[in-house]
Each structure stands twice: as structure tokens, then as C-alpha cells.
């Protein structure tokens, strides 16, 4: 597999993905999406910069891992999104805060995916994320779940989160550089409780 990294794999988080429609925004090599598809059969779409070589590389990585090529969307942050009505319950991303000058565009894309979300069918229920201490966070879709590990200036990091909040999104730091971002309407449904360490769900 020509994958350089799989950053979310390093943190010990459990997600119970009961709602299966997920997109891996800015997926790079596609490693995380391929892992989620292979290990948990998550219905996942990849997306990255509008670039044919990146798309080809993700296709290659899918095939190299004995997987049908995942649906892919070419999208450069801030550009009109090729899908008018996004219906991904969960948008995941890792390691995407390196490009400070692009934060406004990134916020624009994230806002679009969360604010224009239309539920695909009448599934009910919440997404449950369990941290390593056993605390469960339940959130109503759509959610944007992101992690990052690289060192960037503290000021830079808050520029992104402030930008999200200015556009009406709510940012919740779940710890270990994992963030849950939702639109205000759905953020009212975010609930936290401790499960004493039970292990339902997916381990990252
Ligand atoms: C550090 S890599 C992280 C990739 C992947 N998320 C991972 O963790 O392996 C950053 C990614 O951001 C994408 N990217 C950079 N600028 C972008 C932009 N303006 N619009 C969309 N994607 C962009 C790059 O193509 C690259 O895949």
C-alpha cells in the first residue's frame, strides 16, 4: 500500500458508527477510508483536492488492498461542492490544519457539509463516540470529526476554530487533539455520559 500515514489510527478512540454514511474529507492517500471500509464496512466516500493524480493514487491504494475503488469527490476547499445536497452523517478528517492561508476556504467547505446536510432516509439515532476513559459523547448527525497531530502554532490552530465558530458552528474539543464540530442546531443534542469503559463500537 502506498500510504504515508494513518493518523487517526494512533489515538485510542471508539466510535460507534450506527449511521453509515461517511465521507473522508481531504483523505490524502485514502488510508483511513480504506481501513474503515475494510475493517467495518463503513459506507464511505473519499474526497481530496481537485486533482486527477490524487484520485488515481486513492484508486490504486483501494485496489492494492483488494477493495473496490471507493466513490470519490474531487473538491478544493472553498470551491462549490460538486454535490448540492450533502447527506453524509459523519465527515472525518485528519491532519488538515497545515495550510493556514486556506482556513477560510476550509471553514466554508465544512459549513456547507454541515449546514446543507439532508438526511438520506429516515434512520434515527445518534453517533456515539467513546473516549479512552469510557466517556461517551452522543451527537446528532451531521458531525465533523477531526484529529490532527502535527505541531502548528497555537495561534494558527485557534484561527481555524474561531473561523468555525464565527460561521455559527460549534467546536467541542474531545481531548487528544480530536474535535467534534457540528452546526448549532444539532450541537444542542450533544450529550456526554460515562459508560465505565464498555467497549461497543470501533477502536481507533
Ligand atoms: C497532510 S495531508 C493529510 C492527508 C490525510 N488526511 C492523512 O491524514 O493522511 C493534507 C491533505 O490536504 C489536501 N489539501 C491541501 N490543500 C487543499 C485544498 N485547498 N483543498 C482540498 N484539499 C487540500 C492535500 O491534497 C493532502 O491530501
Automatic annotation (TrEMBL):
Superkingdom assignment: Eukaryota
Database matches in InterPro entries: Methyltransf_16, SAM-dependent_MTases_sf
Protein name according to UniProt: S-adenosyl-L-methionine-dependent methyltransferase superfamily protein
Amino acid at each position: 500500500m502506498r500510504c504515508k500515514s494513518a493518523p487517526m489510527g494512533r489515538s485510542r478512540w471508539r466510535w460507534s458508527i450506527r449511521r453509515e454514511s461517511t465521507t473522508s474529507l481531504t483523505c490524502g492517500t485514502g488510508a483511513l477510508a480504506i481501513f474503515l471500509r475494510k475493517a467495518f464496512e463503513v459506507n464511505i466516500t473519499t474526497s481530496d483536492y481537485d486533482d486527477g493524480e490524487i484520485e488515481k493514487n486513492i484508486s490504486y491504494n483501494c485496489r492494492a488492498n483488494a477493495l473496490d475503488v471507493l466513490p470519490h469527490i474531487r473538491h478544493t476547499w472553498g470551491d462549490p461542492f460538486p454535490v448540492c445536497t450533502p447527506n453524509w452523517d459523519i465527515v472525518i478528517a485528519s491532519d488538515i490544519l497545515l495550510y493556514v492561508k486556506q482556513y477560510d476556504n476550509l471553514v466554508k467547505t465544512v459549513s456547507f457539509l454541515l449546514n446543507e446536510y439532508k438526511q438520506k432516509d429516515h434512520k434515527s439515532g445518534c453517533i456515539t463516540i467513546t473516549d479512552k476513559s469510557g466517556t461517551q459523547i452522543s451527537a446528532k448527525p451531521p458531525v465533523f470529526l477531526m484529529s490532527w497531530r502535527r505541531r502548528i502554532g497555537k495561534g494558527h490552530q485557534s484561527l481555524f476554530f474561531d473561523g468555525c465558530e464565527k460561521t455559527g458552528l460549534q467546536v467541542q474539543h474531545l481531548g487528544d487533539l480530536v474535535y467534534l464540530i457540528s452546526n448549532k442546531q444539532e450541537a444542542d443534542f450533544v450529550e456526554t455520559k460515562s459508560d465505565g469503559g464498555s467497549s461497543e463500537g470501533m477502536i481507533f
